[in-house]
Amino acid sequence: MTYLDVELTREGKAFYLQPEAPDIRQYGELVSRYIGVLRSAKYFKRFDDDKNLRKYSVGDYSTALRMVSKGRIEVAIMPELLGDYLNKTKSYDLRKASFKVPGQPSFIAVSKRSKLAQSIEELEIALREMKADGTIDRIIGLYR
Questions:
Q1: CB 77 within 8 A of CB 9
Q2: What does DSSP assign to residue 7?
C-alpha cells in the first residue's frame, strides 16, 4: 500500500448508549458493559488490547446501534461522525456517552497493484485542492 501524504480528518471515537442508561464518564466504566465493536476494527491501543472488556463483534456499525437500541448490548463504539449519522438517519434515538476518545490521523491508501498507483501525485494534488477549497469539509458536513 502507498499512503497519500494528505491527512484527512482526525475522527474521534464515541460510545453510544440507550437514553436511560448510566453515562460513561471515564474508561474504567466500560469494564462492566457489553460493548459492540466492528469485527477486526482498531479503535485505540488501550481499548484494543484490554482483555477485561466484554466486546461483541458485529459485521457493521448499524447492527451495533440496533443492538444497543434493543437492549441486546449496552454500548457501541464507533467513529463519531458515522455514529451520529447512523443514529440520526436510522432513528435509533441513542445518546453519546460523555467519555470520548480523540481521533488519530487518517490517510487514503492505494494498493501498489491498483491502476491508481500510477496516479499518486495527481491524487495527492486533487486531495490538497479539495482540502484547501473546503470540498472535504463540505462532504464531511453532509454527515453531521
A1: no
A2: -
Which residues face 100 on adjacent strands?
14
Q: Give residue 79's identity as a one-letter amino acid code.
A: P
Cα-to-chain-centroid distance, residue 128: 23
- The answer to whether 97 and 75 have CB atoms below 8 angstroms apart is yes
Domain with CATH 3.40.190.10 in the chain: 13-101
Consecutive 10-residue runs of the chain (144 residues): their mean pLDDT? 90 96 97 96 95 97 97 97 93 96 90 94 95 91 77
- CATH class belonging to 13-101: alpha beta
pTM to 2 decimal places: 0.81
Contact between 100 and 80 (Cβ < 8 Å): yes
Residue with cell 487518517: 106
Cα 2 to chain centroid distance, Å, stands at 22
Mean pLDDT of the chain: 94
The half-sphere exposure of 30 on its side-chain side, counting CA atoms within 13 A, is 26
